Amino acid sequence: xxxxxxxxxxxxxxxxxxxxxxxxxxxxxxxxxxxxxxxxxxxxxxxxxxxxxxxxxxxxxxxxxxxxxxxxxxxxxxxxxxxxxxxxxxxxxxxxxxxxxxxxxxxxxxxxxxxxxxxxxxxxxxxxxxxxxxxxxxxxxxxxxxxxxxxxxxxxxxxxxxxxxxxxxxxxxxxxxxxxxxxxxxxxxxxxxxxxxxxxxxxxxxxxxxxxxxxxxxxxxxxxxxxxxxxxxxxxxxxxxxxxxxxxxxxxxxxxxxxxxxxxxxxxxxxxxxxxxxxxxxxxxxxxxxxxxxxxxxxxxxxxxxxxxxxxxxxxxxxxxxxxxxxxxxxxxxxxxxxxxxxxxxxxxxxxxxxxxxxxxxxxxxxxxxxxxxxxxxxxxxxxxxxxxxxxxxxxxxxxxxxxxxxxxxxxxxxxxxxxxxxxxxxxxxxxxxxxxxxxxxxxxxxxxxxxxxxxxxxxxxxxxxxxxxxxxxxxxxxxxxxxxxxxxxxxx
Length: 493
What we know:
Elements: E1 4-5, E2 13-16, E3 25-28, E4 31-34, E5 44-46, E6 55-58, E7 61-66, E8 75-76, E9 81-82, E10 107-112, E11 118-119, E12 123-128, H1 134-143, E13 154-157, H2 168-182, E14 187-194, H3 202-209, E15 217-221, H4 228-243, E16 249-252, E17 257-262, H5 273-286, E18 290-293, H6 313-332, H7 343-347, H8 353-360, E19 369-373, E20 383-387, H9 393-402, E21 407-412, E22 424-428, H10 431-436, E23 443-444, H11 454-469, H12 475-478
Parallel strand pairs: 12-13, 12-14, 14-15, 17-18, 17-21, 18-20, 19-20, 21-22, 22-23
Antiparallel strand pairs: 1-2, 2-5, 3-4, 5-8, 6-7, 7-9, 10-11, 10-16
Helix pairs in contact: 2-3, 5-11
C-alpha cells in the first residue's frame, strides 16, 4: 500500500510519499481512488475528477489549472497542469497575525563580540574587493594556516569576479554586500584585500563600511606594496591576536539569527523538511531569536500564506513592494515571472511555480512577519524577517549571511554539497537522499513521511542547531566548502 498525504481537506490531489502503482487503490477520506497510471514518489494524483481549466488545489491553494480533463486517479504534473501566474498584482491587507507564546531561551556555547552581538564561529576572513586579487587571497589562506590555533576556528576567503567594471546600482550592490560580510559577527577579524585600480576604491569601501574597529579590520592594497604576501603576514598576525581574545561562553538562543533556504527541492520538500524548518522558526521566534526567509521569486503564487501575517500595514506595504518589485525585475529583463521550477524540481514532483512556492514558504512557519529588509541590509528586528533576494542557492545564501545569519538551514530533496560563508546545515526531505548522500546531509527530515511528527522533527532540529552554534561542524564545513555569489544586475564595462 502506497503512503500518501492529502495536505489539507480542500485539496483535490494527494502526494505520493512512496510510489503509487497503476491499479493501486488509495483510501482518501473514506473514498476509494484507483490510480490510472504510475505516480512517482513526491508527485501528485487527483482524488476527484478535475475539469479542463479547473484549479488544481494543494496546500489548500491553487497551484495551477488542468490543461485537460483529469479523472480521479490521474497523475497530475507538467503534462496536464499549467501555472496561473502573470505579472504584478494588487494586494489588500487582511491581518491574520497570531503572536507566539513566549518561551525562556536556552543557551548555546558561543561568542560575544565587543558590540554585544553573538557569534557561533571565531574565524579570520579575507575579503577581496575585486576579482583580480582572488588568487592572492587563496594563497594567503593556504600560506597562513599556522595562525588557526588557540581558539581560532578557521582562516577563509570568499572570492568573486566583481568589484570593477560595474556601474551605478550594480556597483553599489557589490560594495554593500562585501561591507556587510566584513561586519559579520562570525568573523572575529577581517583583512580587506584590494588591487588598487578597481572601481571599488579603498575610500569608497571605507565609507560604505562606516565606523569600524581598526583592531578588527585591516586593509591591504596590493599595488602599493612590493610583496603582498610579505606585507599581509603581519596584518594577519594582528587579526589572529585580536581573534584569540574571544572565548566560548553561554549565550541565549535569543541572540541567534538563522537563515532558511531550500534548493534542489522535490515533491516532499513542502511536506517534510520545509514545515519542519517552519516549526523550528516558530520555536526560535518564541524564544526571541530571529529567522530569515528569502527567495522572493519562490513566494510568487504563495503570497497569501505570508503577507497577511505582516505585523502591521507598514510591513505589509514593504512586502508588497518587495514582491511586485521582483516581478518587475523579471519583466524589465523580458523574462516571464513563472520561468521556474527547474528540471530537477520537476523530476522530483514539483509542477508549477505555485506548487514550488507553496512548499517553499512552509519554512516561514506561522509566526508574524516582523520586518522586510533589503539586499545587504542587516536583521535588526527579532522574529521572522523577509529578505529581498533571488531563489538562486548561492546568491540567496550569501544574502542571508550578509544579513547577519549565523548559520543557514538548507532543505533539499535532490542534494547539494555547497556551503555559504556561514555554516550551512543540509536537511534532506527524504530518507533515501539522507542515506545515499550522507557526506552532504546533516539532518534527515524524511522521517516525517515515515510517521514522525513535525513537532518532534523540529525539536531534533533545534537541538542540532544548538550543537552547531556551539561548535559542531556541518558536513560542508568539514570539507571546507564555503563560497559566495553576489546578486548582479547591470552591465560589464
